[in-house]
Specification:
The structure holds 3 protein chains of 3 kinds.
Chain A lengths: L12 H17 L3 E8 L4 E6 L7 H21 L7 E6 L2 E8 L6 E7 L5 H23 L2
Antiparallel strand pairs in A: 1-2, 1-5, 3-4, 4-5
Helix pairs in contact in A: 1-3
Chain B lengths: L1 E9 L5 H8 L8 E3 L10 E3 L3 E8 L2 E7 L9 H6 L4 E7 L5 H12 L6 E6 L10 H9 L6 E3 L5 H20 L1
Parallel strand pairs in B: 1-5, 1-6, 6-7, 7-8
Antiparallel strand pairs in B: 2-3, 4-5
Chain C lengths: L6 E7 L3 H14 L5 E4 L9 E5 L6 H9 L4 E5 L8 E2 L2 E3 L5 H12 L9 E2 L18 H7 L5 E6 L2 E7 L4 E4 L14 E4 L2 H5 L6 E2 H10 L13 E4 L9 H15 L2 E2 H8 L3 H13 L3 E4 L12 H8 L4 H17 L2
Parallel strand pairs in C: 1-2, 1-3, 3-4, 4-6
Antiparallel strand pairs in C: 5-6, 7-11, 8-9, 8-11, 9-10, 10-12, 13-14, 13-15
Helix pairs in contact in C: 6-9, 7-8, 8-9
Classes of the chains: A alpha+beta, B alpha/beta, C alpha/beta.
Chain lengths: 144, 176, 335
């Protein structure tokens, strides 16, 4: 995704605040979400919202997730699939989703960890709405 | 088919992706993202996964060239990628504020994965007042011995010097 | 006559009595009073400064003296042909402007602290002794690596090679220095001035690496280490491209494994002994290796490569596969 050369590379604080609000709304709508991290595609944690304390350190997760997303996108490019939206990882004790936030100005990703029992369809539907909202926030605030 | 691996590690902006591109027979598969840490380096894009290039020697033999992301928040990847490598080429940027700190960190981490480490110092022309001897003195004071050369990662022959050094060390190891 | 830091030993050659008297008087006036001035012959080993009729400076005897004992030389022309009294290193009589002569002497005879410039020899004495042997000397490089000399210039019979900052381990080559330049027993070092440094190439080089390059290409250093001398590697030299690179890396990789004698290295690498001797000498000259007693090396002196392989058990199918792969890799890149 091309980046405008004149855009500041780090999203403004106003965006972060709106992003936290959108994420909290999603967590309120979908039972079972344990932690959501918004990160830059180069692996920096932008904000983190968690239901309980004791969740995984956000900064490390941001770095790992950005690597995974980049590797998966490269893989998809090799098999000529376009526009990676999200990937779902299922483990014995929970699920994890890494989703791209397709913002022109500040490419980002969301990392969501959930309990095993989360309703995946409901989660993916809310996730899609959330990422679209984040992209709109970013577009609006970056043009100010 | 026999597959071998050479890994390029080292500091952000030191020229790892460039070095792989100068050797690879294929277009390098890059996993880059927008660099938001302009304080660390001003470049627009940075590797966050791995770079992958390839050298095909013949129908039976191929070498994978793996480039790692340089920032230490990606250090979890280094031992994963370094596992089973013929050797690891560490590139350091001479023009950064504290290149010796970089040298210490990358040697500390990569030496756990491989004993065949070759060090290349890049961007020497950007900080001519800082002598190259600082790396040699640092190694000697710790009684460490590694091949260490100043190179330009854009120049294929310079990158080949590092590869040929790796070959020479492997041959010497093999002979003993 | 002996030379000390507070004595100037000056020789005046080829001038009339009147001009010689005049110049003696000027020297005494212009050289600071804390220095004693002595008048000596050109062959005096303690000579510090030569004033000579310009017609005599190319005489073989004078050139021989200057080749093993380089000192500042002021040529004298008895007939004025230029507006200024001094042009380059030539004084045109009569002296109309003493300040010009004073400035010349300041630049050539004294350092920035107005102390006498000393010529430093490999023996560390401030007097240059006559060369009794044509063998080059590695001790001169030991002094360079000592980091205490400050700014020095490297000179030999062909002229100045460049200026080195021994503390920073940097070397600025003379603009006239070519890549093919070699050195020999006439190599010497002397204190340098910042003015001389400005006349050098602006591109600084790593001092150790430059020493390695120049000695590696100087055949006169071949015999400095014997076949039985043992060497321990302290740092890798960076080789130029071509066949040199193959040999240098092969030898360095072997030494990286363990300290070795020259003979042992030659046997392991199948490189002829004289070439390995030169390699080892260049490493020691550059401070990238040191000589050690034979008992301190990891291999018994005289062990052959085959005995080494037998002892370590480095045989087998895997080893063969790797060797085959490395050959293919070399072939691929033309290494």
């Amino acid at each position: 995704m091309p980046v405008q050369a004149t855009t500041k590379r780090v999203p403004p604080q106003a965006f972060i605040q709106q992003a936290e609000a959108s994420i909290q709304q999603m967590m309120g709508n979908v039972p079972g979400i344990q932690q959501v991290i918004l990160a830059s595609t180069d692996g920096f944690e932008l904000c983190s919202v968690q239901r309980d304390s004791g969740q995984v350190q956000g900064s490390k997760l941001a770095a790992v997730s950005s690597s995974i997303l980049a590797l998966v996108q490269a893989f998809l490019g090799e098999i000529q699939f376009t526009g990676c939206q999200s990937m779902t990882l299922e483990a014995e004790n929970g699920k994890a989703i890494i989703a791209a936030v397709n913002s022109t100005n500040h490419p980002m990703l969301l990392v969501i960890t959930t309990s095993k029992s989360v309703l995946l369809g409901h989660l993916l539907h809310s996730l899609k709405a959330c990422t679209q909202e984040l992209a709109l926030h970013d577009q609006r605030l970056s043009s100010i | 088919m026999q597959r071998y691996k050479i890994v390029f590690g080292g500091a952000m902006g030191a020229g790892k992706s460039q070095a792989i591109a100068s050797l690879s027979d294929i277009q390098v598969l890059a996993t880059e993202a927008l660099n938001t840490d302009e304080q660390a380096h001003s470049k627009l894009l940075t590797t966050v996964g791995i770079d992958y290039g390839e050298i095909t020697l013949d129908a039976d033999t191929c070498i994978g060239l793996y480039g790692t992301p340089g920032q230490d928040r990606f250090s979890f990847i280094w031992p994963i990628i370094g596992e089973g490598a013929l050797g690891i080429i560490i590139l350091l940027d001479h023009s950064v504020a504290n290149p010796l700190a970089d040298l210490e960190m990358y040697l500390h981490d990569f030496s756990k994965t491989s004993t065949n480490l070759i060090i290349g110092i890049t961007h020497v022309d950007l900080k001519p007042e800082r002598p190259i001897s600082i790396y040699r003195d640092w190694l000697m004071s710790r009684q460490l011995l590694y091949p260490l050369f100043s190179i330009d990662a854009r120049v294929r022959d310079d990158v080949l010097l590092l590869v040929e050094t790796m070959i020479a060390k492997l041959e010497a190891d093999d002979a003993h | 006559m002996s030379s000390t830091a507070n004595t100037f030993n000056i020789c005046i050659v080829g001038l009339s009595v009147a001009n010689m008297t005049l110049l003696r008087q000027l020297c005494r006036e212009l050289i600071p009073k804390q220095f004693d001035v002595h008048w000596v012959s050109a062959t005096d080993p303690a000579l510090d400064f030569l004033i000579i009729d310009a017609d005599f400076v190319q005489a073989r005897s004078i050139q021989n003296i200057l080749s093993y004992h380089p000192v500042p030389v002021l040529k004298v022309v008895r007939y004025p042909s230029v507006a200024q009294n001094i042009c380059e290193d030539t004084l045109y009589l009569p002296v109309n402007n003493v300040a010009l002569l004073s400035d010349w002497m300041d630049r050539h005879l004294f350092d920035a602290h107005h102390q006498k410039l000393l010529t430093i020899t490999s023996t560390g004495q401030s007097t240059q002794t006559e060369a009794t042997t044509q063998q080059p000397d590695l001790h001169i490089f030991e002094r360079l690596h000592g980091k205490t000399l400050g700014l020095v210039k490297l000179v030999d019979a062909q002229g100045i090679l460049g200026v080195a900052d021994t503390a920073q381990e940097l070397f600025w080559p003379s603009p006239s220095l070519t890549a093919a330049r070699t050195v020999d027993h006439t190599l010497g070092i002397a204190h340098s001035t910042s003015r001389e440094l400005q006349e050098m190439s602006s591109q600084a080089r790593d001092l150790k690496q430059w020493i390695w390059d120049v000695v590696w290409h100087s055949p006169s250093y071949t015999g400095l280490l014997s076949a039985n001398d043992c060497v321990k590697l302290l740092g890798w030299p960076q080789p130029a491209a071509g066949q040199d690179r193959h040999d240098v890396l092969q030898l360095s990789a072997c030494l990286h494994q363990h300290a070795s004698s020259v003979q042992q290295l030659a046997a392991q690498t199948h490189i002829e002994v004289p070439r390995v001797q030169l390699f080892a000498s260049a490493l020691v000259a550059a401070g990238l290796a040191k000589t050690i007693p034979a008992y301190a090396s990891s291999y018994p002196v005289g062990d052959t490569a085959q005995q080494t392989r037998d002892r370590t058990g480095a045989t087998g199918h895997e080893a063969g596969k790797l060797r085959g792969f490395l050959s293919k890799l070399r072939h691929q890149f033309g290494l």
